[in-house]
Amino acid sequence: MNQLFETPIEYLKGTGPARAEVLKKELGIYNFEDMLRHFPFKYIDRTRFYKIREINIEMPLVQVIARLTSKEIIGEKHTRRLVAQVQDDTGVMELVWFQGIKWVEKYLLVGKAYIIFGKPGSFNGKAQMAHPEIELYSPEALKRKGNATLQPVYNSTEKLKQYTLDSKGLQKLTAFLIEQHYKDIPENLPPYLINKLKLMSRADAYRHIHFPADAAELNEALRRLKFEELFFIQLKLLRNKLLRVQKFRGNVFDKVGHYFNEFYQHKLPFELTGAQKRVLKEIRQDTQRGVQMNRLLQGDVGSGKTIVALMSILLALDNGFQACFMAPTEILANQHFQTVKGVLGDDFINIALLTGSTKQKERTKIHRQLEDGSLHILFGTHALIEDKVQYKNLGFVVIDEQHRFGVEQRAKLWRKNVVPPHVLVMTATPIPRTLAMTLYGDLDVSVIDELPAGRKPIDTLHFYENQRLRMFGMMKEEIAKGRQIYVVYPLIQESEKLDLKNLADGIEVMSREFPLPQYRLSIVHGKMKAADKDIEMQRFVRGETHIMVATTVIEVGVNVPNASVMIIENAERFGLSQLHQLRGRVGRGAEQSYCILMSDVKLSRDGRIRLETMVRTNNGFEISETDLQLRGPGNIEGTQQSGVLDLKLADLAADQQLLLLARHTVEEIFEKDPQLAHPENHILHQAFMSKKDGLTWDKIS
Ligand code: ADP
Ligand code: MG
Fold this sequence. Notes:
Layout lengths: L2 H4 L9 H12 L4 H5 L5 E4 L16 E13 L6 E7 L4 E6 L3 H7 L5 E6 L1 E4 L2 E5 L2 E4 L2 H9 L2 E4 L4 H5 L4 H15 L9 H6 L5 H9 L4 H33 L10 H10 L6 H13 L7 E6 L5 H14 L3 E5 L3 H15 L6 E4 L5 H13 L4 E4 L13 E6 L7 H7 L8 E5 L6 H7 L4 E5 L10 E6 L3 H13 L3 E5 L7 H18 L7 E4 L5 H12 L5 E4 L12 E6 L7 H8 L10 E6 L5 H12 L3 H12 L24 H17 L9 H8 L12
Parallel strand pairs: 4-7, 10-15, 10-16, 11-13, 11-14, 12-13, 14-15, 17-22, 18-20, 18-21, 19-20, 21-22
Antiparallel strand pairs: 1-9, 2-3, 2-5, 3-4, 5-8, 6-7
Helix pairs in contact: 9-10, 10-24, 11-13, 12-13, 22-23
The chain binds adenosine-5'-diphosphate and magnesium ion.
The site of magnesium ion has 4 residues, from helix 13.
EC number: 5.6.2.4
Protein name: ATP-dependent DNA helicase RecG
Keywords: ATP-binding, DNA damage, DNA recombination, DNA repair, DNA-binding, Helicase, Hydrolase, Isomerase, Nucleotide-binding
């Protein structure tokens, strides 16, 4: 481990025990590395001089050149202050000091020009600066200022300020640290990479991110440090993948047999899309190699991921293995079970559903059949991977809508068989490529980028409250055509009471507008018992009710092809991927479908962008990119638990090119030197030996 980086902060000259203590408490700075990595959050541009007329109170610290026209000490005791007037060719400004009055007063000479630096304020409608830094103007002074160009500004706290560790104080400490130890800052990339990629050295990068001469130098420093951050994540992910391949064998599915062929020839209800066929081929190739498959299947809502998963399972069955199919909710598990049962028929394959509401007797039977191998496919929620569920020979696992499953739960699966089962993870909606590369960087990725033929794009409309009557009209027309409708209300935990009230009000409005016996409503919300939800869902699925009024429990996966309208109330309160997922519940049949987004007239900027994006496009990949840009990677559903996204500098939305560069660089390295055994890669190999490297490695599975 590097000595410099690990040196406790107490040992930095100028720190001492008391300051060290507050640095630890307030900023989590324990050692030299932490100090170096307490990056400025902004810089002050001292290259540019502003005219008085240009400045306003919104601005950060700025500098001005102006001539002193008057000075005066006024007030008594507490209100005693020095007030000076300056002016340039555009306007007048007042400067004021409450402290150090005597000294400043001597320094100020009427008629002389000064370089004035401070935070613009205003007093009585006039431009003002309190306690600015001032320096007598001279060509030399100007030149000196021109050298000290970008000044770093650091986060500090009130507590730190008591120890004179405000931004300035922190800057001094950092400057000192770099001055003293510049040459000890260890390089962690091999020279050949630095040359090839034209990167700044690590020592220079740390120096210049704190004290850049200009914007170009700052950008180079940032590029180097961001690259490093992304590079080591990719190095670890891809090495993990390599290790897994070396360590675990995989079941070989080399037969295509009765189950697959029978299904393909006689039971498959439609022609597969080109994309579905391609992905099946990828999975087939992957499962024949004797290596455990870990594959992420990305596809837009309604692209037909389920059938691909099912056909992969049939391959497993043909090779003598069992399979399980996990869904995030009971409703979905049940639905997958019913769908598969529907297409397979009753006497083809033995399948079962295991959820929290499965009766004990049925449960016992399932357990027995799993152990003796007579049960082929088990559907359910995470209950499927509880320790007491034992399989005879689990060979294939499908995880639908992955983001609801924790990484730990995924890991449990691995212990289900001597040779771990192949795993196919499916996403609910597409996630941006850069995010996938980081979150699931050690998985292989398949993409279904084609919707089944004959789908009409969903028509999405954004309505305000005053258009509600029009909405009712559209609903009635669709019902008259024999179609069904979803009406969804938000359910966000922090305000559950309010949400339930919204739902209750909504139900009342809908019941009044759509009265019995002409119209029938199904109602599903989170507070209902699973069995009751199920009954309501089934009534809707069978077409016995016209309108399904629900909270977001129906968000993912629900498949009722006859439903043609999705109405989302308070749409501004939903996230983009959630809106897209909900919209994906319609447009599953051949007829034209609609999505109506109801919102308040008052919208936040982001809320407006979300709704506009929904109206503009049906493409889930495009939507996920916008989502990433709006919310940042840390807020995309399912990413919170992942340590890989603790990026300090890089931004997965803004730094896509750099991420791709890091990824490709790592791929190239492993292609040539999978063990990192070459002397030139020694330095990279060492990265795995160090315990503390800022990455929570265990969290990446
Ligand atoms: P998702 O990818 O969102 O999970 P599903 O697997 O639920 O999508 O499929 C959506 C609908 O499309 C289902 O009704 C399914 O039967 C149908 N479907 C899937 N593949 C095809 C295809 N190749 N041709 C026609 N319909 C298809
Ligand atoms: Mg699905």
